[in-house]
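Design a sequence for this backbone.
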């Protein structure tokens, strides 16, 4: 158990950083200082009291990232309630199910999400509020919340007769062993479970990253990963607010063009991303430059290649705002070719590893000690890991972890909890990997995605896809087993094809060439039998991992 406590960390941070900007909506230009945020949280605490919210009451939160989303989240946990963040990309049926399964009594919803919610299907909710302005948009018959909202300003002035002050930033004791968040997973297996995270789980995540100085007082953050997902929530929201950083929110996952424009304006210290963004930048901006005649020759000449790579590195750093110290990749493996290139040019990239069940961090290394191909070191002093393999350093096995970050279990699902979490605290991750003696982890793939080759060897489709995705006219791919054969489903990159003057009728021939080149790089038991063109992009989770289970037929 950690000696620090998350709620008290925020109490101190909001006081110490009261004059600094805390939250900005990039497109609306709306900004709250740390003091302004604390004042809004105090107003929400009055609302909670009127709505009968007590310690342990579930509060559901669904909508795009914005300052009101963050303040509702922080108000809930500093009140001792249990926050239930829900990804706005979930279907209406899933949102209804999560609200009901979690037994949420209060709901905060974005206006667009509220339009698809049917109040007769959210049985326990007593009141709902807009994430635009906290207006009461629903109250169950007999509730007096609407009346309170009409008197909200007067009630606030009556409580703080001399005005709200720094001394009023004071939150109740919430023990470290208490569940404070239920985060419903959105993984690639198609089954949603409510992960119960304690104050201790989130405290350990935040304390470790603060100690690594990922963010510091006054640093700037461009946040575009959904806060309703554990990765974006911890690294782009909980950590910066503990450190005294300024978070600028883009609302949802932007195009690379919009993201680069925002970073040029905000000039962030650290960027937290999923692989898809960097891979798109690499394919659309870097590769075309490297393939030009003069450049193609220059990178083959010693000394000159270093000058070229240095220029590309500077151009990339400038594109990320010019003050970037590190780009942290998580949520899914980074394409190996992209990673190797970025490491070669000394771009400050690192890859971390985690899962919702650990809130989410399991391993991380700062970029200058990052080992290429790995996902960092298991968090020292916080987490420990083992590989279920007779030779953990060389033979992949399931990654099993234990430590401060490991969840309490799945909400109202003892069977699923028992399947992954032993009584000794070891959590089965479902990921296959190896580990170095110094604790550096290497991921090979999901155990459920693993295929068997013709002679029984394990085949990791993600590794094959990583190679195929960098080949001509390939936007994305999925390696699956069909009728006892390993085949690749490929979504063509029509934009690249048009730029190359390639007709649709020529794509099958290009894919045959890709298949030949691919199989030359693979062991005999890994070789792909055929490439099948797929007409539309694969369906993905909010962190942009392909929902593999939809295509394993």
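Sequence:
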């Amino acid at each position: 158990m950690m000696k620090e406590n998350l709620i008290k960390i925020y109490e101190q941070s909001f006081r110490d950083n009261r004059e600094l900007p805390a939250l900005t909506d990039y497109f609306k230009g709306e900004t709250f200082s740390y003091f302004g945020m604390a004042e809004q949280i105090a107003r929400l605490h009055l609302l909670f009291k009127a709505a009968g919210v007590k310690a342990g009451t579930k509060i559901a939160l669904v909508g795009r990232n914005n300052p009101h989303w963050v303040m509702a989240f922080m108000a809930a946990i500093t009140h001792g309630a249990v926050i239930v963040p829900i990804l706005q990309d979930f279907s209406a049926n899933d949102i209804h199910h999560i609200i009901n399964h979690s037994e949420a009594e209060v709901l905060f919803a974005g206006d667009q999400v509220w339009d698809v919610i049917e109040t007769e299907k959210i049985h326990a909710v007593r009141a709902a509020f807009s994430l635009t302005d906290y207006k009461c948009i629903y109250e169950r018959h007999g509730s007096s919340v609407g009346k309170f909202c009409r008197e909200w300003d007067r009630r606030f002035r009556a409580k703080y007769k001399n005005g709200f002050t720094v001394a009023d930033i004071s939150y109740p004791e919430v023990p470290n062993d208490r569940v404070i968040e239920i985060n419903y997973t959105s993984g690639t297996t198609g089954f949603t479970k409510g992960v119960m995270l304690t104050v201790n789980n989130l405290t350990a995540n935040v304390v470790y990253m603060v100690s690594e100085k990922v963010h510091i007082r006054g640093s700037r953050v461009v946040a575009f990963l959904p806060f309703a997902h554990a990765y974006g929530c911890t690294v782009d929201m909980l950590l910066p607010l503990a450190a005294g950083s300024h978070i600028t929110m883009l609302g949802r996952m932007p195009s690379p063009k919009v993201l680069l424009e925002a970073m040029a304006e905000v000039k962030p210290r650290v960027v937290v991303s999923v692989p898809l963004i960097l891979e798109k930048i690499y394919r659309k901006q870097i590769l075309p430059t490297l393939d030009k005649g003069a450049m193609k020759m220059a990178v083959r000449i010693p000394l000159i290649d270093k000058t070229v790579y240095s220029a590309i590195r500077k151009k990339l750093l400038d594109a990320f705002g010019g003050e970037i110290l590190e780009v942290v990749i998580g949520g899914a493996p980074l394409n190996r070719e992209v990673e190797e290139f970025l490491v070669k040019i000394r771009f400050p990239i690192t890859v971390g590893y985690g899962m919702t069940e650990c809130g989410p961090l399991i391993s991380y290394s700062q970029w200058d000690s990052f080992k290429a191909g790995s996902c960092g070191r298991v968090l020292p002093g916080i987490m420990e890991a083992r590989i279920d393999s007779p030779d953990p350093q060389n033979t992949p096995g399931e990654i099993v972890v234990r430590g401060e970050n490991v969840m309490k279990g799945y909400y109202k699902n003892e069977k699923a909890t028992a399947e992954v979490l032993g009584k000794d605290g070891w959590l089965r991750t479902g990921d296959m990997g190896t580990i170095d003696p110094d604790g550096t982890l290497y991921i090979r793939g999901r155990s459920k995605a693993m295929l068997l080759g013709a002679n029984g060897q394990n085949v990791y489709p993600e590794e094959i896809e990583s190679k195929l995705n960098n080949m001509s006219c390939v936007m994305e791919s999925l390696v699956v087993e069909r009728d006892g054969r390993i085949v690749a489903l490929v979504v063509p990159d029509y934009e690249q094809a048009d730029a190359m003057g390639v007709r649709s009728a020529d794509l099958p021939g290009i894919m045959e060439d890709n298949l030949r080149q691919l199989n030359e790089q693979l062991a005999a038991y890994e070789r792909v039998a055929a490439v099948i063109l797929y007409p539309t992009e694969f369906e993905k989770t909010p962190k942009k991992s392909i929902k593999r289970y939809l295509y394993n037929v």
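The radius of gyration is 24 Å.
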